[in-house]
Specification:
Layout (H helix, E strand, L loop, with lengths): L6 E5 L6 H11 L3 E3 L3 E2 L14 E2 L2 H9 L3 E7 L3 E6 H9 L3 E5 L2 H10 L4 E6 L3 H11 L4 H15 L7 E4 L3 H11 L8
Parallel strand pairs: 1-7, 1-8, 2-7, 3-4, 8-9
Antiparallel strand pairs: 3-6, 5-6
Helix pairs in contact: 1-7
Length: 190
């Protein structure tokens, strides 16, 4: 089932493993182009402009927003702004690449407004208990922040019917292979 290359949007609840699945795909499926976000955040050590992010000043970002240059954008944690540039996604698709955009639910809804023909995939945990275990197990958030994220996670899980497909992240490689297959590509043999 070979599909015409295009845009696949991957979203799901907090701590479900979107970044882990996307990283696996980036490392194992070079034919998939992972979209690079623009941000007003300063580069961290080792980050390269155009590879990890497109680093923009606040003024540059606001100008791009005003010009309608983003598929989606949002202010994250009340500090820095992140967004997906239309031009980079459209260029990759024009080059015949299969594009994967890993974003949050709010961003996925914005993309659906702009590009309703894109494919939308919901990454789900095997169970609520597993989602809680993953979030707590990360150890990167305070108990208060964990509780806030779990409340958000309940709302995010309820959005699953808005998506074209659901992939259960019970095993990173299996989930990545299923996602790649949904993109019309052949998963690599194990």
């Amino acid at each position: 089932m070979s599909k015409k290359p295009g845009l696949t949007v991957l979203a799901g609840p907090t701590a479900v493993g979107k970044g882990t699945v996307s990283t696996y795909i980036r490392d194992n499926y070079p034919e998939v182009w992972l979209s690079v976000s623009a941000t007003t955040r300063a580069p961290r050590p080792g980050e390269i402009d155009g590879v990890h992010y497109y680093f923009k000043s606040k003024e540059e970002f606001e100008s791009l927003v005003a010009a309608g240059e983003f598929l989606e954008w949002a202010v994250v944690h009340g500090q820095n702004t992140y967004g997906t540039l239309k031009s980079t996604v459209k260029q990759a698709i024009a080059e015949g690449r299969s594009v994967l955009l890993e974003i949050d639910l709010q961003g996925a809804r914005q993309v659906k407004q702009a590009l309703p023909d894109a494919q939308f995939v919901f990454l789900a945990p095997p169970s609520w208990e597993e989602l809680v275990r993953r979030l707590v197990g990360r150890g990167t958030e305070s108990a208060e922040e964990q509780q806030r994220r779990l409340e958000t996670g309940k709302v995010e899980l309820a959005a699953e019917p808005e998506f074209d497909h659901t992939v259960i992240n019970d095993d990173v490689r299996r989930a990545a292979d299923e996602l790649v297959s949904l993109m019309g590509l052949t998963p690599h043999p194990r």
